[in-house]
Write a structure and sequence with these properties.
Layout lengths: L1 E6 L7 H13 L2 E9 H10 L7 H19 L6 E8 L1 H11 L2 E8 L4 H7 L2 H8 L4 E5 L2
Parallel strand pairs: 1-2, 1-4, 2-3, 4-5
Helix pairs in contact: 4-6
Length: about 140
């Protein structure tokens, strides 16, 4: 089993990584950190490359590089961390990755938003909470 921590595209320290690390240590499980490049961002990057295709493999590589950067910015504790990059619908990819790694917990970040903000813009965290078959730990920004 593994602890799966999802990080967004901000290449800054992320509490989901440190909480995931704590859970992995407590349960003696592997920590897997994943970043999903959304389909919209993937298509935008493909359009920016004039004449050269931006492949799914390119997107996965870039997403994994983002996950690695976030891990380095988030912790300096020793211990193995596996990083993964995915491309597609963020919620679907997170849930699929949780299944692939047989996640004991899925750790996601959240932002404090007003009810109106949630209704207007949707919430990846909320969708994951409602759709996940594994326990979800939502880590709110301070």
């Amino acid at each position: 089993m593994a602890i799966l921590a999802a990080v967004d595209g901000d290449e800054e320290p992320d509490r989901a990584v440190t909480v995931g690390e704590d859970l992995a240590a407590a349960y003696d499980d592997e920590l897997v950190v994943v970043h999903v490049l959304s389909q919209e961002e993937f298509e935008r990057r493909d359009e920016v490359r004039r004449g050269e295709r931006y492949t799914v493999e390119d997107g996965q590589h870039d997403a994994e590089a983002t996950a690695r950067t976030v891990v380095k910015a988030s912790t300096d504790r020793p211990g193995p961390v596996v990083t993964r990059g995915r491309v597609g619908d963020v919620v679907e990819e997170l849930l699929s990755e949780a299944e692939r790694v047989d996640a004991k917990y899925l750790v996601v970040g959240g932002r404090k938003r007003t009810p109106v903000g949630k209704a207007l813009f949707g919430s990846t965290t909320q969708s994951v909470l409602l759709s996940s078959d594994v326990p979800v730990v939502a880590v709110m920004d301070e």
